[in-house]
Design brief:
heterodimer, A: 359 residues, mainly beta, four-stranded antiparallel beta sheet, 42% strand, globular, B: 87 residues, five-stranded mixed beta sheet, 5 strands, 23% helix
Chain lengths: 359, 87
């Protein structure tokens, strides 16, 4: 007998984590929260292996901690045990990324570095290889700080890792994080002095769910695709209103299919182009893009969508979700063809992740 | 024993923790260590990795603003307070 499935949305906001659940129809949502004592939550993710929600909280007084719940948010614990570069070193200012990956949970932090937990998030240890990378002296903070904010793990090889750093670009490790190489070939970086291995802010990237040698990146420099595991990147912006945006979401089943949220540019407010909301979809590796507007506000839309604030679920058809800086949460149950406003008055949304689990 | 007064916003992060408690300690750092033994994880909420008192946390000993190395004696009052900020 097939057990019924439901989708769980994890919405990280400036005032805590919210958990939304719905059956496969995705018409009615049960929204709970704010969790994590209403701390600002930069990112949250669901670990399918253990059934645990992890959320990266950042409290103005008590610092960063990684919260966890093994009962979909009913009860929580928190820890930052081991989240340190050591005595005398710069303290960890924030955790921006949580990435469950099989037996390992990774955390991307500011100042830029990577930590991992082998005990389900109770204690953390530094993945030193990344900060030993020769290019590190040239890493510079982006608008949000100097941080590791994006990570992918090759589903074929748990030691094959990618991270995104603002501002350094993409780095790849094939030995579980011991050594790293820059992977930014083809991404133009308008910098006064070129530093080998340093590229523009890799706002976000995701592996293709069918072919993990394919990767789409929304860089500060534009939209790029790699078909050779990050070795080279090609600009793919034909038909888009701008080259600037933050999130990038891979379709759960279709190779070459991605969803993005272009903004009006990096200098002029960073909101929807012409204040008219459109998300964009490609089904051909970025060769062409199609605007998705049905049900989205077409005027006075002065919001942005941050790098981790867009997600897709794995139902058929896939659900797509986007959370805005104004606290609106838009949802589509038909792969972006039509949208509805799931929530209108959330705090500013930092991240959205979706998981399909047994009811 | 030093008398320690903790803020509600800290206490509620640790089930069973109490706002008013007493610990044996000879410095503010030792106060924090004793609190951490009693409620594991509390050290990381009050100190960063350097270690230093977190930027927006203030600790007073008998009404005087203290540092980690500030001495604490029997009967002294150690008051932990979050700075006023936010919006």
């Amino acid at each position: 007998m097939n057990m019924a499935k439901k989708v769980v949305l994890l919405v990280g906001t400036k005032k805590g984590l919210f958990v939304a659940e719905s059956a496969a129809a995705r018409k009615d949502w049960d929204i709970r929260g704010p969790f994590c004592d209403a701390w600002p939550v930069n990112h949250a993710a669901y670990d399918a292996k253990s059934g645990t929600i992890f959320a990266t909280g950042l409290n103005a007084w008590y610092g960063p901690a990684i919260w966890k719940s093994t009962d979909l948010g009913q009860t929580w614990t928190h820890s930052s045990e081991g989240l340190t570069y050591g005595e005398g070193e710069d303290p960890i200012a924030a955790v921006w990324l949580i990435k469950p990956a099989g037996d390992v949970i990774y955390a991307g932090v500011e100042p830029a570095g990577l930590f991992k937990s082998l005990d389900g998030g109770d204690t953390w240890e530094h993945v030193r290889g990344l900060r030993d990378t020769p290019t590190r002296p040239h890493w510079q903070p982006g608008g949000g700080g100097l941080m590791v904010h994006t990570m992918e793990v090759d589903p074929r090889d748990p030691n094959h890792l990618y991270v995104g750093i603002s501002v350094a670009g993409v780095l790849e490790s094939r030995d579980g994080g011991a050594t790293w190489e820059p992977r930014n070939e083809g991404i133009e970086f308008d910098a006064p002095a070129e530093v080998p291995g340093i590229s523009n802010c890799a706002h976000h990237f995701e592996l293709d769910k069918v072919n993990p040698d394919v990767m789409f990146q929304q860089s500060h420099s534009g939209m790029f695709i790699s078909k050779d595991a990050g070795a080279t990147w090609t600009r793919v912006e034909a038909g888009l209103p701008s080259s600037f945006g933050f999130p990038a979401v891979a379709h759960p089943r279709k190779s070459g299919s991605y969803f993005i949220a272009p903004l009006n540019g990096d200098q002029v407010g960073r909101y929807m182009p012409d204040a008219s909301t459109a998300f964009y979809r490609t089904d051909d590796f970025g060769s062409t893009w199609r605007a998705l507007r049905n049900g989205l506000p077409q005027e006075n839309a002065y919001f942005g969508v941050l790098r981790q604030a867009m997600a897709a679920d794995s139902f058929e058809p896939a659900g797509v979700y986007a959370g805005t800086s104004t606290g609106h949460l838009f949802a589509s149950a038909d792969e972006g063809e039509s949208w509805s406003e799931m929530a209108s008055y959330f705090p500013s949304i930092s991240s959205v992740e979706a998981a399909v689990i047994d009811s | 024993m030093a008398r320690v007064i903790l803020p509600d916003s800290l206490v509620r992060l640790f089930p069973g923790a109490e706002r008013n408690t007493e610990v044996p300690a000879e410095s503010v750092l030792e106060v924090v260590e004793r609190l951490n033994e009693r409620w594991p994880g509390m050290r990381d909420r009050l100190l960063d990795g350097r270690p230093a008192i977190r930027r927006h946390i203030v600790i007073f000993v008998n009404g005087e603003r203290a540092k980690l190395e500030t001495s604490v004696g029997a009967g002294d009052e150690v008051y932990v307070m979050p700075a006023m900020s936010g919006g």
